[in-house]
Automatic annotation (TrEMBL), chain A:
One of its GO terms (molecular function) is metallopeptidase activity. Pfam families: eIF3h_C (PF19445), JAB (PF01398). Component of the eukaryotic translation initiation factor 3 (eIF-3) complex, which is composed of 13 subunits: EIF3A, EIF3B, EIF3C, EIF3D, EIF3E, EIF3F, EIF3G, EIF3H, EIF3I, EIF3J, EIF3K, EIF3L and EIF3M. The lineage of its organism: Eukaryota, Metazoa, Chordata, Craniata, Vertebrata. This is Eukaryotic translation initiation factor 3 subunit H. Component of the eukaryotic translation initiation factor 3 (eIF-3) complex, which is required for several steps in the initiation of protein synthesis. The eIF-3 complex associates with the 40S ribosome and facilitates the recruitment of eIF-1, eIF-1A, eIF-2:GTP:methionyl-tRNAi and eIF-5 to form the 43S pre-initiation complex (43S PIC). The eIF-3 complex stimulates mRNA recruitment to the 43S PIC and scanning of the mRNA for AUG recognition. It comes from Calidris pygmaea (Spoon-billed sandpiper). Its main location: cytoplasm.
Automatic annotation (TrEMBL), chain B:
One of its GO terms (cellular component) is eukaryotic 48S preinitiation complex. Component of the eukaryotic translation initiation factor 3 (eIF-3) complex, which is composed of 13 subunits: EIF3A, EIF3B, EIF3C, EIF3D, EIF3E, EIF3F, EIF3G, EIF3H, EIF3I, EIF3J, EIF3K, EIF3L and EIF3M. This is Eukaryotic translation initiation factor 3 subunit F. Its main location: cytoplasm. One of its GO terms (biological process) is formation of cytoplasmic translation initiation complex. Residues 1-57 are annotated as: Disordered. Residues 37-51 have a biased composition (Pro residues). Component of the eukaryotic translation initiation factor 3 (eIF-3) complex, which is involved in protein synthesis of a specialized repertoire of mRNAs and, together with other initiation factors, stimulates binding of mRNA and methionyl-tRNAi to the 40S ribosome. The eIF-3 complex specifically targets and initiates translation of a subset of mRNAs involved in cell proliferation. Deubiquitinates activated NOTCH1, promoting its nuclear import, thereby acting as a positive regulator of Notch signaling. It comes from Calidris pygmaea (Spoon-billed sandpiper). Belongs to the eIF-3 subunit F family. Keywords: Cytoplasm, Initiation factor, Protein biosynthesis. Residues 68-198 form the MPN domain.
Length: 332, 333
């Protein structure tokens, strides 16, 4: 009885803490403060990755559910087939429509509330993800993207996180303007790109009964990978990924620096040209000739294109989410 | 006959990984006596007492095997579709998908199919079933239709009809019942295969013979199920995902408990309170032998160097993080 109270107390405090965290994480007035997932969805996602996603590929799928107050309830999901090389004319929209129509027949919630994706060693912040999440969030205010990390889960702790784009980032994406000035104006740092929404898992009573049955019948021994000390393999791979990302980032920085240098060089050239023009004009005036027409200097000197800063932001975000999730578990 | 492959004991390795070292020596003994069904592995699933007539009964042309391996996601799906059934429907049915092995059938997925059942007729939307199967095939091309499931604890006459529908789709389909009405306060999960019976030429019928059901998990599934199971203990059936430190703490506590149990048992045997059991003794021997023989100083050095590696990596990562933060600040100036 004491242990029961303890666990309910822990669950209660965990619940309260996660709600508090939710409020702190939400910037401004985010529509979703908590995500509630059915056990069934968790199992389905795990199964999907296990069967179809070996290797570096990501597996994706759609989440279905509904919104209750400020809570997003995810009650079901279905996987998306992977992009195969052969049928390029595979109609994703049609597949989705068909699936949702069929699910509606059997009374499964057919409202689209988000999508899920698996990740490789914790790095998932890519342009594609950003675009997809933006289009989802634009269409459906409360959608989230669930990131499932299978490698970390295999090590002992289910790793499932829900992310949304912050309102600031939504604004920037709407403008589609990724130049450095726009980003500076919006004051976006990598921390402001995604916000994490706390997750709780909920099961119905009948599912609990089923789980008890399973527990009785199967009685599989406890897995203790969580306490395994042999983590050097994963550590090596994570470090490799981190280095790759940092390389990309440094390349991006070099590009930006060259751009800045080009801009300043160009300014100098413009300045010089203007001065020469003025001098010439003065000379001509002194000789009594018509001054040269003022040419549009801007046409002569085309300003170099500023590189899109979005990619560097993305990479930065990627690096940081990757190691913050991965490395903590090794610290034990 | 040759069709009766030797003991079904090889089937449980997925379900009982910890006990595999002892299951392996047991099988050669069982090989010689195929009818005496496998010495039930310590984690005895489904009905062991009926296993003996079972293996004899299932000898014959049943290539699908006598063991049905079930993934928990299938059960969760079935229960969920039962909860969402239409008004007035007493039960739900659906299709089972999975793969066939030489000795067993592994059910990995399922979807529910709308159907109407009344006193004297039953209508199943097979068109829907076909469509859904096509859609599912796009995602997992290796899954085939294995049979069908129904909630409710009995097999009715309608089941026979539905089973016939499914015989057209799959060879020797399996029928799974999940008792959601909780008769006998248990949710019994049973699997059947049909066999024709009766007098040839005159009254023919179909008999449903039971199969053993085993639960198999992928590793990650095991961890997922463990986590989901925690909702059983929470008052409002809700749990948050615990932080990493909490999980390490609880895992260590669990190991500590099991170790103290083992120690207690050893003490009891030594003091004579409990009769010594040879099999348990062998387990304990294996356990002790698994601990590698390293002198403590070496172990400490290894552990420390490992920790040093981790600390260095964490330090580097933090350095990178502060560098990036600085970078951002500079850019926004």
């Amino acid at each position: 009885m004491a242990s029961r109270k303890e666990s309910s107390g822990a669950a209660g405090s965990g619940f309260g803490a996660s709600k508090g965290k939710g409020k702190a994480a939400a910037t401004g007035d985010s529509a979703v403060k908590q995500v509630q997932i059915d056990g069934l969805v968790v199992l389905k996602i795990i199964k999907h990755y296990q069967e179809e996603g070996q290797g570096n590929e990501v597996v994706q799928g759609v989440l279905l559910g509904l919104v209750v107050d400020d809570r997003l309830e995810i009650t079901n999901c279905f996987p998306f087939p992977q992009h195969t090389e052969d049928d390029a004319d595979f109609d994703e929209v049609q597949y989705q429509m068909e699936m949702m129509r069929s699910l509606r027949h059997v009374n499964i919630d057919h409202l689209h509330v988000g999508w899920y994706q698996s990740t490789y060693y914790g790095s998932f912040v890519t342009r594609a993800l950003l675009d997809s999440q933006f289009s989802y969030q634009h269409a459906i205010e409360e959608s989230v993207v669930l990131i499932y990390d299978p490698i970390k889960t295999a090590q002992g702790s289910l790793s499932l996180k829900a992310y949304r784009l912050t309102p600031k980032l939504m604004e920037v994406c709407k403008e589609k303007d990724f130049s450095p000035e726009a980003l500076k104006k919006a004051n976006i740092a990598y921390e402001n790109m995604f916000e994490e929404v706390p997750i709780v898992i909920k099961n119905s009573y009948l599912i609990n009964v089923m789980l008890w049955e399973l527990e009785k019948k199967s009685g599989v021994a406890d897995r203790h990978e969580l306490l395994s000390l042999a983590s050097s393999n994963h550590l090596g791979k994570s470090l490799q990924l981190l280095m790759d990302r940092v390389d990309e980032m440094s390349q991006d920085i070099v590009k930006y620096n060259t751009y800045l240098r080009n801009v300043s060089k160009q300014q100098q050239q413009k300045h010089q040209y203007q001065q020469r023009r003025q001098q010439e004009n003065m000379q001509r005036q002194s000789r009594g000739e018509a001054p040269l027409p003022e040419e549009d200097i801007n046409k002569l000197f085309k300003p170099p294109q500023p590189p899109p800063r979005m990619d560097s932001l993305l990479i930065a975000g990627d690096v940081l989410t990757a190691f913050s999730t991965q490395f903590f578990i090794y610290k034990c | 006959m040759a069709a009766t492959a030797p003991a079904p004991a090889p089937a449980p390795p997925a379900a009982a990984p910890a006990q595999s070292p002892t299951a392996a020596p047991a099988t050669p003994a069982a090989n010689s006596t195929p009818t005496a069904a496998a010495p039930p592995p310590p984690a005895a699933p489904a009905p062991p007492p009926t296993a003996t007539p079972l293996s004899a009964a299932l000898s014959g042309p049943f290539p699908g095997g006598r063991v049905v391996r079930l993934h928990p996601v299938v059960l969760a799906s079935i229960v969920d579709s039962f909860e969402r059934r239409n008004e007035g429907a007493a039960r739900v049915i659906g299709t089972l998908l999975g793969t066939v092995d030489k000795h067993s059938v592994e059910v990995t997925n399922c979807f529910s199919v709308p159907h109407n059942e009344s006193e004297d007729e039953v209508a199943v939307d097979m068109e829907f079933a076909k469509n859904m199967y096509e859609l599912h095939k796009k995602v997992s091309p290796s899954e085939i239709i294995l049979g069908w499931y129904a909630t409710g604890h009995d097999i009715t006459e309608h089941s026979v009809l539905i089973h016939e529908y499914y015989s057209r789709e799959a060879h020797n389909p399996i029928h799974l019942t999940v008792d959601t009405s909780l008769q006998n306060s248990r949710m019994s999960i049973k699997a059947y295969v049909s066999a024709p019976m009766g007098v040839p030429g005159k009254t023919m019928g179909v008999m449903f013979t039971p199969l053993t059901v085993k639960y198999v998990y992928y590793d990650t599934e095991r961890i997922g199920v463990d986590l989901i199971m925690k909702t059983c203990f929470s008052p409002n059936r809700v749990i948050g995902l615990s932080s990493d430190l909490q999980q390490v703490g609880s895992a260590s506590a669990r190991i500590q408990d099991t170790l103290s149990m083992v120690l207690q048992y050893a003490e009891d045997v030594l003091s004579g309170k409990v009769a010594a059991d040879n099999t348990v003794g062998r387990f304990l021997m294996d356990l002790i032998n698994q601990v590698p023989k390293i002198p403590p100083e070496d172990f400490e050095t290894m552990l420390n160097s490992n920790i040093n590696d981790l600390l260095m990596v964490t330090y580097l990562a933090n350095l990178t993080q502060s560098q990036i933060a600085l970078n951002e600040k500079l850019l926004s100036l």
